[in-house]
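Minutes, project check-in
Item: structure for the 386-residue chain
Input as provided by the requester:
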Amino acid sequence: MMNDTNVAINTLYAIDEQIDKLVKKIELLSYVNPINIEEQKELFFASKYTINPVFKYPTRDFDKFKLHREFFTLKLELIEDEKIRSLYEEIIYSYSGLIQCIETIGEEKKFYYNSLRSFGTPTEQDVENAKFILHFETENEADAIFQPKYSTKEAETIFKEYANKYDFTFNIKESSTMGAIAMVLNNIQTLVLNSNHTFSENEMAILTNHEVGVHMVTTMNGLLHPLKIFSHGFPNNVETQEGLAVFSEYMSGNLTIKRLKELAYRVIAVDSLAKGYTFSKTFRLLHNTYDLEREQAFYISARVHRGGGFTKDYLYLTGLKKIYDYFQSGKDISLLLTGKVSLEFIDDIKYLIKNKYAVNSKHITDAYAANSNKNKTIDFILENLK
């Protein structure tokens, strides 16, 4: 009996190991960020917002058909535990979807429909939530904390100092070809900073908590489990991970109306994709209808239209609301820090920990220790999102 149990466990670990090797090739954010974004921004502005940008993307360095085949020839039927086998089946389908996203980057509708399958699109209620947020008055943007202040090198120093709170190390590098101002590449444990950006005090307060306090924390926790699925990600983990990250901005007292509006504009922009808007029409919606200054309107439009229509960005706001409600109900948030996991798999996480396939979170987001938010308007908004 013991021998049969060992064989079953070894089979599970062997399959998990194979998935890990395959998944390291499909970091979607490595492929979907345009490499000519600044050049296209200048051309777009020069055209008076009429000529849609033509983005170029990094070359894909894997054989898509071979990768699909390797995923679907894994012998999941050999996993005897039905609950775990079901989880792995969902994981395979999820990664197949991401491969389809990567292989169609730049192919307009093809990419959009694959993105839709992997990330969904805002509901009418999500759009109403976004519009609700936009009714509130933004902080005085002339305040010192919102002014450009830190170079990329100075920002790097601040990130390193902040990271001293945690018992792990990671790499930091710069990139001039990204739509975001900072992001974590999970598969190489690297924080990437946008070398074209000058960071404000508020941005640094947000990013240290968001990128290091959550994304790097879950990256590092994910590496500690016997099973590697915690590291490369559960299905639909983006909403939970981004929700946790923005929630850390809130708990650390750095979430502003300005930041919430940014997340709301992303929802509006993703919704414009569903309505068939071109890049220039999405931009004009944000810039003219919603009076968003043109640099921010461009980058939000670029984030959403890159690849051919990337719907992921609406999940920051829906994720924040779900994590806020989860925390307010008194549930254990540390379970969601165990890796790149999803709220809907919370029972699976508990099951895997109970059966010694996973461990409790070693690294805990510093901001979650106490609620430092003092902004009653932020509380009112989060409580009243539907």
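Outcome recorded: The CA atoms of residues 85 and 238 lie 22 Å apart.
No further action items on this chain.
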